């Protein structure tokens, strides 16, 4: 009924949505959307390096994004610049370096649009393996650090005082962010990955009254966005990334209706 | 039990400096099982800082802290919670430890806020939130309880009831309590040891000793000293919410 590539894209997209759902909640709660952007922009450099040295793209992106995260932490310690300025500095300079490197790699044909906005045609069987095993590992680790990470998101001092080691949880979470970007870059594209993290989580916030519900709705929202997005991408021949993100946006707008209703009920 | 075993946390000449300014220095104190140690002192005298040193929140400190327990309950003085989180009272109770439902209900009942269990934390009043904070700290059945102005914003009758609850918890759980309070009546009735701070330790000892201390008198004034020293009688009854008298 469907072409193989489309089935692969579906399996890949659903796997990504399972991971971005819970991680996205933390991105919203901890106000890390710009941080996610920075890691995603630096992913371009990772992709170019993967092509230059014939590495696996996900691995290379993971390494570069983790590196950028480490540099950010060091810069935060050693300079007096505010966090958002440092993020902007790293985001745009790593994007620029990535683009310049692409310019030098004239011997490789690059699909820049595919890199920026995702390309469902590019998903291979190997990618499926990376997405699903990588995703499973990310979710497992997130489950392990859930308590300290969540507690310190609510209040750092309480978590620290009651012996939960929030600093370690935060460091591990940073690595998980790099990992989720690495596994989803091919599908969603580096300009739109943060949208995949934030929009379903934001939608979920509008209809949840507890953290568990928000995570659950965020996952469901992500899965629906992928389904809707990929089918419309096939139907209208649009890029996969923007189609998925637009579907997420539609769900978000629908969730706003719920807010209006509950405000009415209160009055 | 030897005194070494009953020690929960011990500060040895501890101090903390921020931006080249000492917030507090040279504090030595010990909190033992079943004992209540109270920190008093004017604003900015380093009470909360001392509590945070004892809790291990501040890392680069002078002197040393020896902590012998990891079962800690903490009620901070200031707490800023980000309301982008959908968080009910129930979720908040489970924040740092998975506690059984019965223990949650018991703690919320003790502090008088069981009816708020499924309410969103952001919709509580200041006093209600304070009661939830106390409930969360005691529901863990901690060995060490650190309470930084735990009854701020609580109505007057509630205040007395909560302090009595704290005293009772120290007895039943046999936990050590490090209490920060500006309520000198409470300090007098419930405390085993008082540490009077003003950037450093002014004086310390039993409530009566501290009340007679000259440095304490200059810090708080004669009147405060009288409050402490006349407060030698013990209550033989408590008042319930409805004003009925209950004998102890």
Describe this structure in words.
The complex is a heterodimer of chains A (267) and B (248). Chain A is mostly helical. Chain A contains 11 helices and no strands. Chain A has helices at 4-29, 33-53, 57-78, 83-104, 112-117, 125-154, 156-161, 166-188, 193-206, 211-236, 240-266. Chain A is globular. Chain A starts with a helix and ends with a helix. The mean pLDDT of chain A is 90. Chain B has helices at 3-6, 47-55, 89-93, 101-110, 126-139, 156-173, 184-190, 207-212, 214-220, 222-230; strands at 7-18, 21-32, 36-40, 62-67, 72-75, 144-148, 176-180, 193-197, 201-205, 237-239, 245-247. In chain B, the strands form 3 sheets. Chain B has a 6-stranded mixed sheet with strand order 5-6-7-3-8-9, with helices on both faces. Residues 230-235 of chain B have low confidence and may be disordered. The interface between A and B is medium-sized, with 25 and 27 residues.
Short description:
The complex is a heterodimer of chains A (267) and B (248). Chain A is mainly α and 267 residues long. Helix content of chain A is 84%, strand content 0%.
Percentage of residues in DSSP E strands of chain B: 25-35%
Overall shape of chain A: it is globular
**Do you know the CATH architecture of the largest domain in chain B?**
3-Layer(aba) Sandwich
Pick out the low-confidence regions of chain B. 230-235
Q: What's the layout of helices and strands?
A:
The complex is a heterodimer of chains A (267) and B (248).
Chain A: H1 4-29, H2 33-53, H3 57-78, H4 83-104, H5 112-117, H6 125-154, H7 156-161, H8 166-188, H9 193-206, H10 211-236, H11 240-266
Helix pairs in contact in A: 1-6, 1-8, 1-9, 1-10, 2-3, 2-4, 2-8, 2-9, 3-4, 3-8, 6-8, 9-10, 9-11, 10-11
Chain B: H1 3-6, E1 7-18, E2 21-32, E3 36-40, H2 47-55, E4 62-67, E5 72-75, H3 89-93, H4 101-110, H5 126-139, E6 144-148, H6 156-173, E7 176-180, H7 184-190, E8 193-197, E9 201-205, H8 207-212, H9 214-220, H10 222-230, E10 237-239, E11 245-247
Helix pairs in contact in B: 4-5, 9-10
